[in-house]
Every structure is written in C-alpha cells, then in structure tokens.
Queue: 3 jobs
Job 1
Amino acid sequence: MDLLLLYLLLFLSFCIFLTQAHSAAVWNNVSDQQSLLGLKAQITFDPNNFLSGWSPNTSFCEWRGVICFPHVERVRALNMSATGSEGAISPLTGNLSSLQSLDVSNNALGGPIPPQLGRLSNAEELLLYGNHLEGDIPASLSGCRRLVTFAASYNRLQGSVPAELALLTHLERLVLGGNFLEGTIPSSLGNLTSLIELTLEMNNLTGSILVEVGMFTRLQTVYLHTNQLSGIIPSSIGNLSAMTDLELSTNNLTGPIPVEVGMLTKLQTLYLYTNQLSGTIPSSIGNLSAMTDLDLSINNLRGSIPVEIRMLIQLKRLFLHINQMSGSIPVDVDNNLLSGSIPYGIKNFQLLGRFVLRKNRLKGNILDEIGQMKSLGSLDVSWNQLSGGIPDSLGELQQLRRLVLHHNRFSGAILVGLSRCPNLELVDFSHNELEGNIPGEFLTSLKNIQFYLNFSWNFFQGPLPKEISTIVSAQAIDISGNQLGEEIPGVL
C-alpha cells in the first residue's frame, strides 16, 4: 500500500511538472508573438509590405523574416535587413528571450537603441548598422553576454563608447564607425581579447590609441581613421600578428612610425596618411611581404626612403607624397625633395597600378624596364629634371591610361611604339625638348582620350597630321609653342 501511494505521488508530481512546462511554453510563445507585433507597431512605413503577413491568426514562425528553432515555437533569429522600413526599434524586442540574431540593418529606422535589448542574454549578433538611430549606446547592452558581433555603424549615435562593453568577453566584431561618438576609447576594451574586427572610424573620438591594443592578438582589422586621436602609435601594436588591415589616417597622431610595425607580416593595408608623424620610415617595413596598399602621405616624415621597400613585391598602391623626405628614390613618391635617378629593379613591382614621382629633383632617363610593369595604369614623372628619349618599351603597358611627362628635359622624337597603348585617356608631353613630326600612327591610337592631349612648348615640326581629327572625345588638345606648319587639316 505504501509503495502504491509513493507511485501515485510521483505520477501526480510529474503531471504537475508537465502542466507547468506546457504553461511556460504557451506563455513564451505568447510573449514572442506580442514582442513581434510590438515591433511591427513601431514601423511607420513598410514600402515593400514586408510585414503584411505578420498576423496573430498565423504562427509567427511562418512570418517573413522570422526564424524559429526546429520543433520549438520560439524565435531564434529576426532578419529585417534592407526592407526599406521606417520607424523605430520597439523596446518589446528585448522580450525575445531566445533570440540569437537580430538584423535590422540598412533601413531608415530612427530613435534610440532601446536599453531593453540588453535583456537578450542569448543574442550572438546585433546588426543595427545603416539606419538613422540616435542617442547614446546603452550600457545595458553589456547584458548580452554571448554577443559575438555588435554592428551599429553609419547611424547618428552620440555620446561615448560605453566602458561596459568590456563585459562582452565573447565579442569578436565591434563595428561603430560613421557616427558622432565622442570621448576616448575606453581602456577597459583591452579585456576584449577575442576581438577580430574593431572599427570606430569617422567619429569624433579623442585621446590616444590604447596601449592595451597589444592584447588583441586575434585582431585582423582596425579602422580608427577620421577621428581626432592624438599621441603616438604604441609599439605594442607589433603584437597584432594576425592583422591584415590597419587604418589610422586623418587623425592628429605624432611621433615616429614604430619599428614594431615590421612584425605585422600579414598586413595588406597600412594607411597612416594625414597625421603629424615624424622621423624616418623604418627599414622593418620591408618585412611586410603581403602589403598591397601603403599610404604614409601628408605627414612630417624625413630622411630617405628605405631600400627595403623594394621587397614589397605585392604592392599595388604606394603614396608617400607631401612629406619632407630627401635622398635617392627606390620607388614611387611625389612632392618631396628626392634626387638621383629612377632606380633599376623597379620592374619588380609587377602589381603597381600608379607610379607617381612628380615634383621632385630627379635626373637621368626613364628606364626601359618600366615597360615590364604590366599593371601600371598611371605614370606621372612631371616637374623633374629627367632627360633622354621616351622609351619605346612604354608601348608594352597595355593598362596605361595616364602618361604625364611635362616639365622635364625629354628630347628626341615620339616613337610609334606608344601607339600600342590602346587605353590612354590623358597624355601630357608639354614643356620638354621633344622634336620631329608628331606621328600620325600615334594619334590614331588615341581614340580613348577623354581628358586632354598636350604637346605644347616643345620643338615639334612639320605639318599637323590629319589623323588628329580621329581624336573626338578629348576635352582639350594643346599644340601651342611648337614649330608646326600653319595649315590646319581640313578635316577638323
């Protein structure tokens, strides 16, 4: 009898448990439905009728953009990205307690980020970027302890970066660029050792770059450009061995480029332009064998360009202009005080797209080997003291669009080899000592000229070739200051 009574009590307890579990499930289902309907109520304009099927008469798991767990009627993800929606994010969204992913990016949502989103303790990603959200970033978001990605870039957010975000120890991507954030970068963010991407660009941030940045050993992308950051680039940046993209341009950074930058052997993009950096370019930069884009322009850099820069054979874009560097030149810079000649070995830069040496003090010839730089789209050596002939090898540059040689001492004739460059859009040979006839074959090849063709102030002779009439797209053609015949071709 006692045993039977025990079994009966166990059975009743189990029934009560099932009833409570069922009641909780029903309540959670109702809560999710109410939260979604609350979100819909805050949308004031739905141009694509994305929410038209959100009705309490159907299961919310069947609503467009709603993803539920298999076999469980709870919302796992909500995707309303790029629906054209206007309105606001409902505070009731914070009641979706099982939600793992919220994506309302690329809409026209305004108002604040609801502090109630901090209740989403299971959320792994909050994608709020590309809206018109305003106000502060709620410190309560630190309650999303499983958060991996928080992206709220390109909104109208104000205030500071909350120090409480440092509690999100699983965070891998913190993307807050393109807002109106102020204040300093909290040192507590050094706790986010799982970070892979840190983008705070185009804000009004002040203060210095965190020394703690060296703790982000998994970091691959850092965009801090276009702020008001000051101070030095910390040497601890050399610890970021996984870094591929580092953009610190358009700030007020001072001091030297740390030699430890050479330890970032996976770095592909390094943008430090428009700062107040001083000192010399460290020779360790030659270790960055994966580098494709290097821009150190508009600083106060001095000294010579290290010869090790020739080791960057993957380089596509290199900008060092508007500095105070001097000495000989191993590769492409403009508007400095560089002297000497264009060096041999320049052909190693097979991926270089722009080669700009204007406004220096270079002498000597244009090397034949430049014709081996097959990716070259722009060659500008204007405002130097270069001499000799224009090499026929330039005709091998099939991608060349801009050829700018003005204000030098080039002499001799224009070789017809240049007619093999089919994509030229701008040609400027002015203010040199070129002579002879202007080849008609060369003019015929310039059918893609879109900007201008300038032969002025040379010693060209003979009649103006009738082939000049084939250049119909040029904005201007200048042949003044030569010894050409007075007769203008009748086809013009």
Job 2
Amino acid sequence: MGNRQRKSRRKAIRLWFIKRRSKADASHLSEISDNDEQDDECMDGFVGRSLDMEPCIRNNELRIFVGTWNVAGRSPVGSLALDLIEWLHLKEPADIYVLGFQEIVPLKTKTVIGAEDPTEATNWNSLIGKTLNSKYGGAWLTPMINPITNDNYQYDAESDRRLRSDYEISSPARGQTRTKYELSDRVGRYKLMASKKMVGVFISVWMRRALLKKYRVSEVKVSSVACGIMGYLGNKGSVSVSMSIGGTSFCFVAAHLASGEKKGDEGKRNHQVSEIFRRTSFPRLPEDRRKNLPLTILGHDQIFWFGDLNYRLYLEDNLARELIKQHNWSALQEFDQLRKELEEGGVFQGWKEGNIEFAPTYKYSSYNCNRYSGGLPSRAGEKQRTPAWCDRILWYGKGVKQLSYFRSESKFSDHRPVSALFSIHVEDQKCARSGLVSFPPSVPSTIPSKAVTNYKARVIEMLDLHSYH
C-alpha cells in the first residue's frame, strides 16, 4: 500500500510539471505557485525560494551638471565665490559636477611652449571645492586638488577608502566627540574625482561622496590633445576624462577651438574637432586586457562635449545686434555655424544640443561690463567682434535628458559662463537580489537541467518523508 501511495504521488508530481510547462508564457515572470486545487493538492505548504541565477541590473537616475567658462586668463579671487554659486546653481545641487575652463592662464609664448604650471588649476580646484562644500561649514579638506599631469592616471578607489578611514579614526580634540556631520564637514560632501590641465584648457570633475558607496566608480582616466599652433601646441585643443559609474561609461571633453570670424574659419574648428576625435585615447593597462573598456571618445555610452567652441554667426554685425535687442534667439540661431554643423551632419553628426534661449555669450567689452565689444559708435582700442554663442554644451548617447540650458551673468571675463543640467540613467549591478523565486513558468528553459532534476528529487523526497507520518 505504501509503494502504491508513493508511486501515485510521484505521478502527480510529474503531471504537475508537465501541466506547468504546457501553460508556460515566456512574456512574463511568475512564482512557483498555482491556485489550481486539483493539480496542487500534493504541493500544499511548499514555498519556492530564489536561485539567484543572474546578476541584478537596475537603472538609476543621476543629475549631472556640465559647465563651461572662458575666464580670459584671469586668476580666481575670493570674491569670485558668489559668481561660482550662481553658475553652479547650488539651490538645486547635482550628483556630479563637470566643469570645463578655457584660458585659465594668459595664452602667451611662455605659457604655451613652457612647462606646465599647476598653480592656477590648483587655485581653481580649491575655490570650486570650497564653494561646493561651503553649505556644510567648517574647514574643508580634499585629498587631491592638484591637476593630473600624467595621461596614464587611474583613480584608486581603495586608497580613497583608506584616506577616508584615516580621517574617521583620527582623534578628536580632548573632551570632544566627533559626529558623522562633523566628518562630512572635514572630508566634504563632494569629492574631486579627476582634473586635467593643458596650457589654458582645464577640466574638473566632482562627485557626491555618497555615490562612491552606492556605485562602483572605476576606470577614471584622462587624455589631452594639443592642436593649436602648427597643429600640435596646446593653446587650443582638449582635455578629457573617461570614467565608469556602475555599468555605464562616460566621457567628458572640455575643448577650446580655433578663434576667428572670417569666412572659412569654421573649417579650422571642424578640423580640430576631427583631430580631437582621432587623437584622444584612453589606453588600457596590462591588468585591463580582459575588460571591455572604451579606448576612444565614441566608444563610451554617454559623452558630453563642451567649451569655447568658437563657432560664430553667418551674419553681419549690425543685423546680429538688432536681433539681440529684440531677444529673437530663434531667428539668430538660423545663422549659427554650429547649429548648421549639427543639422547637416558635419563633424558632430548625431550629436544633440538643447534649445538656446539666452543671449550670445561673447564678446563683452571689458571686465565688469555688460556691453558687447565693438558696434557703433566705435571705441578706441576696442576689438570689433560680432556677438556669438561661442560657449556651448553638446551630448551624445542614449538615456540622456537635458533639464536646463542657461548662461550666468558673471562679468569676470569677456565670456559669460554657460551651464546645462542633465538627467541620465546608469546601470547599477550592485543592487540587492530578491529572496523570492521569480522566473518564467517554463522551468526547464530558465534553470539548468541539473538544477531542475535536483529540484524534483527534493520535492519527491519531501513527499516520501511526509507519506510515512
């Protein structure tokens, strides 16, 4: 009688699996459970648990602030902090700040052909760090404010963790206790991930420290391309940062292209863009050989290109100024050289730019002045320049949404700073896995055959044991 009962239960199990397979619908997921009373009498009280067969991938949203500013060779001063606060739009803080500068040193013979001097870049990093972290008060410290001098640089997450640990275990003053808030004061909410200087072109990338715990941030590399005088001097060119956040790769390119508003000058700029694409590289180290890392700009998932791109207007000066007085930005954009490149699929084929709803950012008459250079009546010693949107921010890749695109009103230089805020999605491969079974009802197609066999055997074993009681 016992053998018959066990055979009957085994038969019921086989029938149950067959019926489950015949009802399979691969278009959705379901748990191992069924409400069919007749088929599931022998399955009462049985609960499935997850087998964690594949890594969990979850899309997360980040806010990236991208800014560009040609500072006309001027050194940062303490009073500039208020201008930075406006430019960085700190009322709505971002997760990542990517800032590109041009002409952080005067473009003179000594600075162009001489050895790189990190002083000005360090000063800018110091001011940016203090501004980003000022809302927390207290003394702000950061482990790195000097720009990276070697293109083979890679961010060392482990040493960063050790440094933070050193901060946390250092002894407080006698009679005092250190709170988490005070620790964030000292280390800073935003961390400098990378910065790179080439003559006057400079990039600085900052990230909220909380993201370093949430995501795996890796493969932070830098690259520079000099394509100015004779095609190889650094008065013009680009500095770039490559990095991976979770499962998404990013490339940030800060550029300063050839100036000039004569006919044909746009061709020089286009050539420099092509050179930057061709010559920017992020070589793999020996330990990276098995990793599928991007080597070029276009190898990344999401790319941002920004700077003083110097594209001008195909329009006479007096007509441009009249449209500016009318705030007729759409009419003015019809004559914009870069917009023409984007529409006709030139060097920036497939790239995007947000709608421009602000006045041209170049060239203003003098420091602390809100008047464009040139025009009538002419002024002695003043350069005649047709106003133009020289300072731009472009992007390339899927999963990027621009939330805003605006200029700030700092009168620090003859350019106005420009900013854009983006919402982007990254793949996070570190998310927690569910403990509840969830896989397609066609069990054998999802779980390896050996696992299914063991699974069936375990169910039958449980039923056999139950039959003796």
Job 3
Amino acid sequence: MLLAFSVAPLAGVDDTGSVSAAVARAVAVVRASGLPHETTAMFTTLEGEWDEVMAVVKQATDAVLEVAPRASLVIKADVRPGFTGELQGKLDRLEAALADAPGGERAGEAGGNVGHLDAAEGCR
C-alpha cells in the first residue's frame, strides 16, 4: 500500500505563522518508523501494510497535536495487495512509458515537466 498524507496545524504555531516546526515533528515520526517513505513539499508518501502506515499517520498526527490544538489531515492511498516496492516502481513505469512516448521525452528532461506524482497512477 502507498499512502500519501499531509498533516499540519490549522494555524501557524510561531510568530511568523509558519507550521514548519510542527510538520518537522510529523516527518521525524515517519523517518523513525523504518518504512519506505518520500517527503515532498506538500505530502509524505509511506509504503507498507495497512496497519503499519495507518499507525505512522496516527503517530505523526499526534506529534503535531502536541504543539497545536487542531490539525488538518489529508490522506490518499493506493491499496494494491501483494505489491511491494511501488514507491519507486510506479515512477520507473512512468519513466519507461515516457521514454516510449512519441519523441521519447523523459520527465524533467528537455523541457519535460515532472508534474504531480499522480501521473504515475495510470502506470500500474
């Protein structure tokens, strides 16, 4: 299962309105989990079994709630039993499809645009 999530306080927790320190607490939980993961500017994606990834999301949310009275949590999951290595596998299939596309342009090269990772959704 791949699970992308974003958790943050609903209001800034410092004088500048930044939520970075609170989000860093959540990302530290993810890193300590030992699960394969990737953090981008907007989401963190985890790979593992249902109970594993949901436990990490709960712990990460709890970490934010330790410094904020309210949090926003957004979750998107790709539930595909029997598959592992999909955090990279979906992107590899996307890159292969782009290489085979007319012009053979690959994402991020020759003016290509990596875009949102949801583009990998169709590369199952």
